[in-house]
Amino acid sequence: MPRHSITPAGALCFLALTAAPAFAQWAAPPDFEAVRAFMDRADRVTVARLVPRRSGSVEPTDERRVIRSSRPASSAAADPGWRRRLTAALMIEENYSRYGGCPACWPCVDTAQVATLVTITRGDDTLQLLLLFRERCAQFLFDRGSGGCIRFASRADSIFDLVKAALPADAALRAARLPDAPPDAPKASPGAAATVEELPEAIYKAPPVYPPGAQRRRIQGTVQILARVEKDGSVKSTRVEWSVPGLDDAAADAVRRWKFKPATSDNEPVAVWVIVPIRFSMH
After folding, report:
1. Whole-model pTM?
2. d(CA 263, CA 260)
3. Residue 138: beta bridge partners?
């Protein structure tokens, strides 16, 4: 029987919203070439090392809350040469997943964790990279949601050295070592933290209700919903993975009414997270 890789319930990674407007062509999560082209043509780059605002555990089930609970321990502007070196070290297409997620969440009170937020700006448009060194993974962040992720693979040491070079005044970072990867870190593509024999199959797709206000304003597009399909095939939890303002709530409401044949592993039903696109069109 064929086996498939899929992100299991409980293996979520960071997702954040930025305040900057989306790059015009990114009505959907961009592909590798679009992201790389944006990085190649950036006007400004800033680098910040993140730490929790206060001690204590932060539940990693709400990535926006995790980001809000962080603060920059240090930050600095990076020059174009640094940005080019980061692009060369990080942007390897075979390590990129357009819809995937990093394989683990922020261990908020783990002092070995080093997380860095790189903000890349071109004109009024912004792309952010959340570099998670323990997880050996970077999450792409847009104002509309998560734009996939990329594994560091064999480049973790080089990327870590680049962050140190960008923040030379950060004494704690200068003394830090690259955090050890978890012993059970997934070796497959980003987000592939478990193996299932059968993927979930939608058996009832509740149609979305087009919000009247969105219709009047002629808002249309595709909302990407991350949905947790339970062992009984119901959907109990959803999150907007890619936003179309004015349509997000209607899309999530529709997906929560979907019914699935659940995923299975070792012939037993398992709960998993899946991406569900909900399209709204005036035509």
Report:
1. 0.69
2. 9
3. 131, 150
